[in-house]
Amino acid sequence: MDMRKLVGRNLARLRQAQKLTQEELAMRSGFSQQYLSDVERGLKNPTIITLYEIALALSVSHVALVEPDGMAEETAPQPKRRRAAGTGRIK
Amino acid sequence: MDMRKLVGRNLARLRQAQKLTQEELAMRSGFSQQYLSDVERGLKNPTIITLYEIALALSVSHVALVEPDGMAEETAPQPKRRRAAGTGRIK
DNA sequence: AGTCGTTACATATTATAGTTGATAAACTTG
DNA sequence: CAAGTTTATCAACTATAATATGTAACGACT
Question: Tell me, what's the pLDDT at B91?
Fold first, then answer.
């Protein structure tokens, strides 16, 4: 299950349904057209606040952006989050 | 509408409903107890992948973590996303 | 073919998400 | 009440999300 792809598909579908271009949504949301393009193509892992603000600009519920859309899932696994970082404290 | 607080409330409620400690959820999810504590208290702005992985560890749908929970919204506005960054290119 | 509108691609930078370890504070239990 | 358990808090670090800018590629239309 790839959340980036799911959210991307939902976003693209909802935007197109409203006959909006990415540029128009960009202006409404304050995100750049280039960023929205990446999100729609599943290349970005947005935060929940970003999700909400995009939904707001689209006048839809943020839930609509994360709901399963009935598309067949690919066999590729969900991209994982970041790996291990610093020790958190100077030893 | 503060997404961080909403997700935090949903997470805490669902976790407690399953009688899980943050430590146990931490072990199941691979996130640290400290991080989950921050998320539950609305102090973190997780990405959609993080959202999904927490939901997976809780054996609930990720949608359950973002659904409105009927709590009265505070008058404080949604925290905004990040501000302007670099110029993107050496001029 | 040329033009226009739209989307995709590239790059460098900054802000912040997520990690880690330590530990204080709060809560629960016997 | 003391001890054990759970959650909250702090701080420093690394990885990455988001920004800004430029522009290539694509599709539609004349």
Answer: 35
